[in-house]
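REVIEWER CHECKLIST
Item 1: Sequence provided? yes
Item 2: Single chain? yes
Item 3: Sequence as submitted:
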Amino acid sequence: MKSARKWMVWLAVVCLCGTMLVPAAAEEAVDPYGPVSEERVVISVGREESANVAYDPGESSEDNYIVRYLEEKLNVDYQYAFSADSATYQTKVAMALASGDMPDVMNVNYRQLAQLVDAEAVEDMTDAFAKYKSPSLTVCFESTDGLAEALATFNGRLMAIGNVAPGMDSVPLIWLRKDWLEAVGLEAPSTWDEVVNVASAFISQNPSGKVTTGIAASNDYYQPGGGSYHLNALFTYFGAYPEQWVADKDGQTVYGSVTEETKTALAAIRELIASGIVNPSLATTNGDQCYELIANDQSGMWFGSWWNGQWPVVNIMGGMSDSASFMSVLAPLSSANGKMNVVGRSPTDTYVIVKKGASEDVKEAVVKTINYQYDLDQSQAEGVRPKGMDSNFSWHYYPINVLHCDYDAKEKQIDAVMEVIAGTREYDDQCGDGKTWYNGYTAVLEKGFRAAYQENLATANAWGWATGAWEVQRNSELVNIIPAACYAETESMERLWGAMLTLEEEYFLKVLTGESSLDGWDAFVAEWNAIGGERVTQDVRAYVGK
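Item 4: Structure as written out by the authors:
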């Protein structure tokens, strides 16, 4: 039986979150960190690996000090049904869904969640989440004003536990070779023309002797939640917001990919690609290949989120000479208002589901595992790492491969770090993660990158995160966050979106690479509407009310 979708609009969350979940009946207090049962609880897990994660010798994703710590604390046994890398994870999930042979726990996207709810294939997590979530995890979800729980709610029941990602991720920075900037005699760019001039100078003056392109960009050219090697800032410069529902100048909800602003942005970006300012082979270039362009001195610029200061910057700098250096800049700023316009990202883009028929012990173990994982991330596993803070650590060590972070955590954290540096806050008045950032940031300032990197990779990584976060936060007055109209999906979107998105992606890539003309824009929009766009837009507007 089909379940009615409960999907939310950012501006309506405050009104709706009070009616979203019905708390379980009052029960005796439970320890959100206590053992699940006297008998060992076995949980089968499907999880996503990351090839970029380092482990201490003898450790792995399935057997590391974090997994062992959680198994001991909760008296559980995490058994990995599969642990696939990012490139093949969705294939593994699709196979599990098709066969019905699902692990007890795994991460799915929104569409998969909706399908599982329709099929009555997942457990209702309302009562377990209300009963076992920790006070700190409660604060984490409250930082989203109810949106994270709302996105996983169907017919008033919480059917999954969504992740909570930091809102700062959506703000794009341009990362560039600082040593090259000095070599070509230019200042850090802030306007569109300055970004183009820097890229042109890198190509024409060729500081490395190997430069082949200006801005390294991948075929994943627009990433609404932030990422690496995209062109988000070049679109938003024109007020274009592809793949997002936004309000137009008249306040009506529109899909950003079919607006005139996006057409204008495509035309401008197409010129940059044709001239080599942006990687001309964008259509056939993935993120790994962009990494190689930067690491091999063939390109010195790309767009990415604040966390790019850790990946790829730290890893790339680790393999370069000491003369190589990188910096980040908030650019290009809009010529209309002198700011960078950004659609605030949804806090949730992946959902932890528990398969139907799993025991109450399994549901309890899932919530309590996430309690611990949240706290471990906040402290950066301080006190748990076997060799102190010199031990490698990543949230990918977690058995349930999901990250929870307060929506505004990175802003608060980097502010605290800078206050300690300024002497207006005590060092111990920071979370463990903040201490890590402070230690890494100051270590590189005092010793230089190479010494800090060779002494401890974790220290260099912390410097990278802090550097990127500070560039965003210190320019916060220049960032104009625009609320999206909605972040989830209607039933019609679930049915029709695949064909609509394929049409959009194919046409946009052909336009960007010069294979198709923008003369076909009206035909593209008409076809998009015909195969589902008109219906989906009507549904979204009906819910939003405009």
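Item 5: Key structural point noted by reviewer: The CA atoms of residues 216 and 279 lie 5 Å apart.
Item 6: Recommendation: ____
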